[in-house]
Amino acid sequence: MSDLQIGLISAGVLIILLVLVFNWWQDQRVRRQMQSKLPEAESDPLMGQLGGTAPVRKEPTVRIADSLKSSQDDVQIDEVDPTCEAVIDISFNHPVQGGELSQVLQSCLRNLSKPIRFFAITEEGNHHTRLAESEQYVSMQLAILLANRTGPLSDIEWSNLWSAAQNVAQHFDASLEGPEQHLVVQQAQQLDELCAGLDAVVSLVVRLEGPVNVQRVLNTLGEAGFLSYGRQMAWLADSGIPRFTVLFDGQAVEDVQSASVERLDLVLDVPNSPMDTQAFSRMASVGRDLAARLGGQLLDEQGRVFSEQSDQQIDEQLYTMYQQLEEAGFVAGESRTARVFA
User: Fold this and answer.
1) Domain range annotation of the chain
2) Strand 131-132 relative to strand 69-70: parallel, antiparallel, unpaired?
3) Alpha carbon distances (Å) from 327 to 79, 196, 288, 330
4) Beta-carbon contacts of residue 271 (< 8 Å; ≥ 6 apart)
5) What is d(CA 70, CA 68) in angstroms, rounded to the nearest whole number?
6) Would you say 146 and 84 are in contact if contact means Cβ atoms under 8 Å apart?
7) 92-132: per-residue pLDDT in tens?
8) Is 272 in a helix, a strand, or coil?
């Protein structure tokens, strides 16, 4: 091989490396811009009580240390939801300090797939959903969610929780009480069947004419009224709950790594959005506005051009679903509903 050939090969390799480095730098620059310029809501009513800055659809579980420990000011009053949760009662033979109980729960209650809530009862009879380290507790309840969008609680999942509760009881020489497994599994399946008939997620697509710079899309969404909501951007109701959210080529905004986008998905999660007589037409109107601003078309889920004539009919259908949810005991947009439809 001649020196000229070696030189040409070396130059080619160098050019390829430069292109790779440039692409990496471009992606990092776009992501930094997105983080720094993404519009944010000044406050999130849902997260205000939890002390966080992002919405969490899942109920805090005992797998997370922060959901166990708290200061005395953080303790909350709540109650078990017998329709949506199965409960194991643990009664201590002598009062147990919150700090020790927290450590044992973290050790025993690991790798449980369904969300769990717990309710600890103090010597004075107060119910706490978070443990105060200096407080003394005489009993507690472990409440596991019977069903969500991943399916009903299985016999294996219930058995795992029961075994974990037995370990907690054994550590403190406590007594244990709970329902029979077949009854729990039966109730879980019934709840799952009920919610499956009430669940609906509706979407529209803004198909752009070609790749559009992500920063331009972010700016346009901000101008159209979207705000940052956790990892997503959402069109919020006055209550601070999303009416609908937007995806970038099928991804939440914080997961986007490319410098451009070709498709925006507007997603209306019926059980997790507040009841609205114009739920769909509101989203469709925003979609048409975005299509006009960015240069594109508004399409339905099958990729067909969507007609404004269908707005009212779909509004009526969705409003019927909102009413059916409420009749079944699930108010759209509330935290109890979000636990099951998550």
Assistant:
1) 65-196, 201-340
2) parallel
3) 21, 15, 33, 7
4) 198, 199, 200, 325, 330, 332, 337, 338, 340, 341
5) 7
6) yes
7) 999 999 999 999 999 998 878 899 999 999 999 898 998 99
8) helix
Burial-class residue 236 by CB neighbours within 10 Å (0-12, 13-18, 19+): buried
Q: What is the pLDDT of residues 216-234, one digit of tens each?
A: 999 999 999 999 999 999 9
List C-alpha distances in Å: 253 to 33, 227, 286.
Answer: 12, 11, 18
Please write the tens of the pLDDT for every residue from 297-334. 999 999 999 989 999 999 999 999 999 999 999 999 99
| CATH for 201-340, options being 3.30.1400.10, 3.30.450.20, 1.10.645.10, 3.40.109.10 | 3.30.1400.10
- Residue labelled with tokens 């966080």: 52
Pairwise CA distance, residues 70 & 21, whole Å: 46
CB 321 within 8 A of CB 270: yes
Compute the distance between CA of residue 206 and CA of residue 208 in angstroms, rounded to an integer: 6
Task: Spell out the residues 6+ positions from residue 44 whose beta carbon is closer than 8 angstroms to its own.
Answer: 53, 54, 55, 229, 240
Contact yes or no for 157/114 (Cβ under 8 A): yes
Give residue 167's Cα distance to chain centre.
30
Residue 235 pairs in a beta bridge with: 244
Beta strands in 18-132 (DSSP E): 69-70, 85-97, 116-122, 127-128, 131-132
Examine domains 65-196 and 201-340 and report if their fold is the same: yes
Q: Quick check: 214 and 258 in contact, CB under 8 A?
A: yes
CA 41 to chain centre: 17
Least confidently predicted of 22-26, 122-126, 157-161, 209-213:
22-26
- The reply to whether CATH 3.40.50.170 applies to domain 65-196 is no
CA 229 – CA 226 distance, rounded (Å): 9
How far apart CA 268 and CA 199 sit, in angstroms, is 11
